[in-house]
Amino acid sequence: MSNHAINMGADAELARCPIMPTYGAPSVMFVRGQGTELWDSQGKRYLDFVGGLAVQSLGHANPEVAEAISEQAMTLTQVSNYWATEHAHHVALQLDRHITGSGSSYGSDSGSPSGQVFFCNSGAEANELAFKLARKYTGSGQYEILTAMGSFHGRTLAALAACGQPHKHEPFEPMPSGFHHFKRDEPDSLEELLSSSTAAIHVEPVQGEGGVWPSNKAFMSRVQELSSENKVLFMVDEVQSGLCRTGKWFAFQHFGVEPDVVCIAKALGNGFPIAAVWARAEIASAFQAGDHGSTYGGNPLGTAAARKVLEIMERDKYPQKAATLGDVLSDALGNLPRVLSVRGMGGMLAAELDGEISADIAAKATQNGLLVNPITPTAIRLTPPLSTSHDHVDEAMSILKGVLHAQPPS
Ligand SMILES: Cc1ncc(COP(=O)(O)O)c(C=O)c1O
Fold this sequence. Notes:
Elements lengths: L2 H13 L14 E5 L2 E4 L4 E4 L2 H4 L8 H11 L12 H14 L15 E6 L2 H16 L5 E5 L8 H6 L3 H4 L9 E4 L4 H7 L4 E6 L2 E2 L5 E2 L2 H14 L2 E5 L23 E4 L10 E6 H4 L15 H16 L2 H17 L4 E7 L2 E6 L4 H10 L2 E2 L1 E4 L2 E4 L7 H17 L4
Parallel strand pairs: 3-15, 5-6, 5-7, 7-10, 10-11
Antiparallel strand pairs: 1-2, 2-3, 4-12, 8-9, 11-12, 13-14, 14-17, 16-17
Helix pairs in contact: 3-11, 4-11, 12-14
């Protein structure tokens, strides 16, 4: 069969694909990636400034991660979590080190870990575990979780209830109880919700799906104070903002705070599904055997990928890479036509446009070989691989400039 025939077949399959329509109808089928580049089933090349939604931080098909996965696939892929495997322990230690990193007052000076890690497979699962841990640790009567309006924490029922986006709740009501939403970055609104039933305050240091809104330092410090005064947990959802994306290992580190629980996913496997929750050791010890579990969580294949990802991020100084990329990209975005402002941190950015044109712009950019994400009706989000070269930034900006330029006035 010729390549052309294969491609025609792929597109025909796409048209009658028996996959539930929760993402809308896909316009392209991708078959290959390399770094920031992708190729579709017709052989057309694209620049990926979505990065699998902040997953592909080391770029598509990173050869070292691919090798670690393929070696592990030929060695051992899964055993039940009743037994230990090789890489989980190492990844847990590295996560602990990066979370409690230099300059923090976490833990002891003995070099022993200050926290413990639970491995799972997705961001929603990580948040679910955090909610259970908060309830178990704080004890009877404390069960409420406070999150921000506009926040996003995943699609399972409890994670959905935690999302501060009522329109996402409506089709699935009634929501599980015990979730309340304060106004983003408004300490008074948060204080009004705190009660003897509160178990935790759960915050995205940079709201991602809500539109890319970084928190401010005063608010994050107040969350830390209110948590300790009220004996509730301070938890951060770093599923999107974590692992170098914002220019530090974790976004909370920009704000000089020290949360009790950190939820991690997306970039941890660079495309291999793996997630983790870190908690201070005394909090994690509230869990006993039988309190939680995951058949696939922390399997050798996922943790081999994560171990390599963390090794590369540290060796190649990914926090600095993200900060530099962010500076270059935000300057370039700020100079484009129709862009009113640029917000975000490091390689997690949004450009606010001068009208409700983001879906149109994203669709036209795709036609022109650039992927960007219309995160609100008026803003596009960019979360490219952190390894993206400055040449690729120039090329992407020139495509976007052309598309914005050609867009009729709003
Ligand atoms: C901050 C945040 N939390 C949780 C999730 C849910 O992660 P997953 O889709 O892996 O369940 C996301 C996904 O975008 C996210 O951005």
